[in-house]
Design brief:
Strand order of the largest sheet: 12-11-10-15-14-13
Radius of gyration: 61 Å
Pfam families: GAF, HATPase_c_2, sCache_3_2, SpoIIE
Shape: elongated
Structural class: alpha+beta
Number of helices: 24
Organism: Streptomyces flavochromogenes
Strand content: 15-25%
Transmembrane segments: 154-175
Subcellular location: Cell membrane
Helix content: 40-55%
InterPro entries: Bact_Sigma-Reg, GAF, GAF-like_dom_sf, HATPase_C_sf, HATPase_dom, PAS, PAS-like_dom_sf, PPM-type-like_dom_sf
């Protein structure tokens, strides 16, 4: 309180003195300003030259004095004789004061004892345009007026001091109370002991502590901070940027920004810095040395990245059993996590599924990198590596090769010096060549190239590359083995499918087959010529993939050929095929491990170009589509039937009449069924693609494939499009034969006339013999009705129909037998002969080769 009172008294004295000084100075300035203003007023010089200057100047001076707030304005001549004064009786008397400086042209102020008492006055010259002083003007204030102003300010000053004293008293009390509360009432000894403890802890902790002020000076630095930052002993109190600490640390301290666990490099140390502002006056900073922790973290991060790379490789490599795709996946996984560029070179036989031998040429199978303008060998190149190259050494020994510096690798440069120079000039500076070795066989070499990171590959990178390639090699070998099996299955599949469809006149055919991308299945199709100018159309699908499915497909296709040679109806043919599949399963031809014949589907159709009827039956297969000549496309309402191999259910046939030019479309489910779309959508797209009457089968096939063929088929696809033809009345002749042996000669004569009309006189004799034997047998051993039909197509077919289902048998007759040689004679005279059954009986037919193609087709 005493200090506050002394300060207040001193402040009061200083304020009073300063106030008086300021008021005196203000009085002098105001006097000069008023005197100069009046001296420069218009008309003053004319008034001085007038006969009675006082009469003009006295009232003007008094009015101006009152307005300006001064005590007097006196106008005088250069001798000091007054022309105006607040006391009119003083006019004409000599001015009290010093006028010499003003007569000389200067502005002069002084304090004098004048007529009004103690005065502060200013004397200003009145100068003519020629620069001559023609008069003087004096203005001023009395000291009494000046003192009055100061005295009026004194109560305000005293009041301010009293208020300040009161505030100081209250503030002192509040601060004392707050300090007592914050120190919990501790006395000076306790506070001293606490400070000593605080100082000891501050300088003994293993964490640096810094405190800076708002001007960037270092206020506090404990021992650990000094050790970590290399601070001098006299660092406290000096500017932060002048104590020799690291530049980045100094910039952080001077910035004053908030920092949380920010890592800074200071010399050979990594420091973790936290900074918080302590208000506008500075910041508090803590520092931890994380050099060793960072080293451990770096090793842990390296291990984590290594494990992640291997984990990604396990999931991303080998998604398909395709050698090229697997090589690409391997290259993509390693870029940019491990290398900047990766190339995979496989021995050329590996791409075909074969096992490579020593010294095989390498095919660049995959390339991946951070840029595409690299000078490495392009994709698809066939490379013969020289023995001096790391690739050749790695392929030969099965051991990975590390080339830390490609600049200094003469063996590698010898392979292709211009390209090697271009690679080095591009910035690629380090290489690891790791062989793809699986099950004791080296399949190729994986090359890891580094360009962006300045440090070369090291031994740790080499071990990682070996582990990565070792994992991928097994997948690559699996893909190679699958490729070999796939090629074998495709070869077997294509060898079992028809290469060239047989010649026939019933239909125009377009077909398509494509194996699945992931494995050959058991889809097949076939076109089988049948007696009577008919044709059998078949499409099937064996469940499963691989060699077993392809082999089973071949067996079923052969069975269909054999059953069709018996001229069985479609439903009966499927029944026999169903029994065959059941026997194959029972005989152990298939097991779950080899993807055996758990079933198969089939659709069999027989088209007769004479009646234009098509009889069809299906066993669990997709229904056929029928395209009418006007473009109307319908899905046939054909009973589905169970898939082959289930047994126990009969098959049903459906007969359709098909106009000439109609198209019958048979297909497997791989065409219309796909993961990305529903099967009903696939059928609708197929129907839309076929609804064009102006297209031939080949054009229809292209339209269907454009609309439905997947890029990577997941299942086999078989497609068969048949456009129907007819044998017109001019190529068919038939007669009903009375059930009397005497009528045989008449029928022979009709047949001879018809052959003459067709220009086939050369076949008349043999035809008459064939008909004579067949008709005689029908009348003798069969039942009515008997009918004869001749068909002129690519062959001449003789058909004899009867009402009996008894099958004739070809046999050798003894020399003593009177008969039994009729069918033997028919077999010798004809190219082919046989029997087929109808609901009304049977048909015995015989085919003869036409003399010329011209007569057959004319």
């Amino acid at each position: 309180m005493a200090i506050v009172v002394l300060l207040a008294a001193g402040a009061l004295l200083a304020l009073v003195l300063q106030s008086r000084y300021d008021i005196d100075r203000e009085a002098r300035n105001r006097s000069v300003s008023v005197a100069q203003t009046f001296a420069n007023s218009l008309g003053l010089q004319e008034a001085l030259r007038s006969p009675d200057p006082s009469a003009i100047l006295q009232p003007l001076a008094e009015e101006t004095r009152k307005d300006a707030g001064v005590d007097f304005i006196v106008v005088m001549d250069t001798n000091g004789i007054r022309y105006s004064h607040p006391q009119p009786d003083r006019i004409g008397e000599r001015f009290v004061g010093t006028i010499e400086p003003s007569v000389a042209g200067q502005v002069y102020t002084e304090s004098v004892e004048g007529p009004l008492g103690k005065e502060i006055q200013a004397i200003v010259p009145v100068t003519s345009p020629e620069g001559e002083v023609v008069g003087l003007v004096s203005a001023g204030l009395t000291v009494e007026s000046v003192t009055g102003i100061a005295d009026r300010q004194l109560p305000v000053i005293l009041l301010a001091i009293a208020i300040g004293l009161a505030l100081a008293t209250v503030g002192t009390a509040l601060i004392s109370r707050r300090l007592r509360r914050q120190t919990h009432g501790l006395g000076t000894q306790e506070m001293t002991r606490m400070y000593e403890h605080h100082d000891a802890v501050l300088h003994s902790v293993r964490e640096g502590v810094l405190i800076t002020d708002g001007e960037g000076r270092l206020l506090l630095a404990n021992d650990e901070a000094g050790r970590l930052l290399g601070l001098p002993d006299d660092a406290e109190g000096r500017p932060v940027d002048k104590v020799g600490m690291d530049r980045r640390m100094a910039e952080l301290l001077l910035s004053g920004r908030v920092a949380t666990d920010e890592v800074l490099e200071a010399g050979d140390r990594l420091l973790v810095v936290n900074q918080r502002p302590t208000g506008p006056q500075g910041s508090a900073v803590t520092i931890r040395d994380s050099t060793e922790m960072q080293l451990l973290s770096s090793r842990a991060e390296t291990a984590r990245k290594r494990l992640k790379l291997l984990y990604d490789a396990g999931g991303d490599i080998g998604t398909t059993l395709d050698v090229v795709r697997t090589a690409k996946e391997l290259a993509d996984v390693a870029v940019p996590q491990f290398a900047d560029f990766v190339t995979v070179d496989l021995a050329d036989p590996v791409l075909k599924g074969d096992e490579p031998g020593p010294g095989a040429d390498m095919r660049r199978t995959a390339v991946s990198g951070i840029r595409s303008d690299h000078p490495l060998y392009p994709l698809g190149s066939l490379i013969e590596f020289l023995p001096s190259t790391p690739q050749a050494r790695g392929y030969g020994t099965g051991t990975a090769e590390l080339v830390p510096d490609l600049h200094d690798a003469p063996g590698w440069h010898a392979q292709d010096a211009p390209r090697a120079s271009a690679i080095v000039g591009y910035g690629i500076h380090s290489l690891i060549a790791a062989p793809l070795k699986a099950r004791g066989v080296v399949l190729g070499v994986v090359n890891f190239w580094r360009s962006q990171k300045p440090e070369p590959f090291d031994e740790d990178d080499l071990s990682l590359a070996e582990e990565l390639v070792g994992r991928a090699a097994v997948t690559m070998d699996n893909a190679r083995r699958y490729t070999r099996e796939h090629h074998l299955a495709v070869t077997l599949q294509r060898s079992l499918l028809p290469r060239d469809l047989p010649e026939q006149s019933a239909v125009d055919v377009a077909h398509f087959y494509q194996p699945a991308q992931s494995g050959v299945g058991g889809d097949w199709f076939d076109v089988i010529p049948l007696p009577g100018s008919r044709v059998g159309l078949v499409v099937g699908d064996v469940v499963g993939h691989g060699l077993h499915a392809a082999a089973t497909m071949g067996r079923l296709r052969t069975a269909v050929h054999n059953f069709s040679s018996l001229d069985l109806p479609p439903d009966e043919l499927l029944s026999r095929l169903d029994n065959l599949v059941q026997r194959m399963d029972q005989e152990g031809d298939s097991t779950p491990s080899d993807g055996g014949v758990l079933g198969a589907t089939c659709l069999y159709a027989v088209y007769d170009p004479v009646s234009q009827n098509c009889t069809m039956a299906r066993a669990g297969h997709m229904p056929p589509l029928v395209v009418a000549p006007d473009g109307t496309t319908t899905i046939s309402e054909l009973p589905a039937g169970p898939p082959l191999g289930l047994g126990g259910m009969p098959f049903e046939s459906t007969e359709l009449h098909m106009a000439e030019g109609s198209q019958l479309v048979l297909y497997t489910d791989g065409l219309v069924e796909e993961r990305s779309r529903d099967i009903s959508e696939g059928l609708e797209r197929l129907r839309t693609a076929l609804s064009h009457p102006d297209r031939d089968p080949q054009a229809s096939r292209r339209a269907v494939l454009d609309a439905l063929l997947p890029v990577r088929p997941a299942d086999d696809i078989a497609l068969l499009i048949a456009r129907t033809r007819t044998l017109g009345p001019g190529r068919v002749a038939e007669w009903d034969v009375p059930f009397d042996p005497s009528e045989v000669g008449a029928v022979r004569g009709l047949a001879a006339e018809q052959l003459e009309e067709w220009g086939l006189e050369e076949l008349a004799f043999t035809t008459e013999l064939i008909l004579s034997e067949l008709i005689t047998n029908a009348i003798r051993y069969a039942a009515a009705p008997v009918r004869v039909r001749l068909l002129r197509d690519r062959t001449l077919t003789c058909e004899v129909w009867d009402g009996s289902s008894t099958a004739p048998h070809l046999r050798y007759a003894a020399t003593t037998d009177e008969g039994g040689r009729g069918l033997f004679l028919v077999a010798q005279l004809s190219e082919h002969w046989g029997t087929r059954y109808t609901p009304q009986g049977k048909v015995i037919w015989a085919e003869q080769v036409l003399p010329t193609t011209g007569s057959a087709l004319s």
